[in-house]
Amino acid sequence: MSELDWARSPVLLELLNAVLDRVEAQPFEDRRRDLVFPISARTWPAFFGIDAPAERAYQWQLIERLAAQPGFALKLDERRIVRDLDLMERRPRLAVGAEAETFLRAATGRRLLCRRHFHFSTTSESASLTKLIAR
Predict the structure, then answer these.
(1) Model pLDDT, residue 19
(2) Which residues, 6 or more positions from 82, have their beta carbon under 8 angstroms from its beta carbon?
């Protein structure tokens, strides 16, 4: 058994892959702040599709365990007016820092293939490279 077995729940993997998709779309070195990923039916349909309360509670425990890993934090709306509401009504968000990328890649099995930065002086140079890559 691996120490990451708990993170390989299919429901949690859906979330981890979605987070990693966002990281790959805009790498941490291109960000000024941590990635903040909203936890909602739109971003994590597998979780919100769970009907069994016990299974839903278990998956939420996995989120709390994830939030305890380096680079992750669970954020909830802390306004007094919503403090007594259900967790899902408190706009949960997963904050993800650069130090979490290693965990995300290990849990999902997705490797970093290549990350190159190109700086162009004109938009036409950028468009030319885009056409070349698309071929």
Answers:
(1) 97
(2) 89, 90
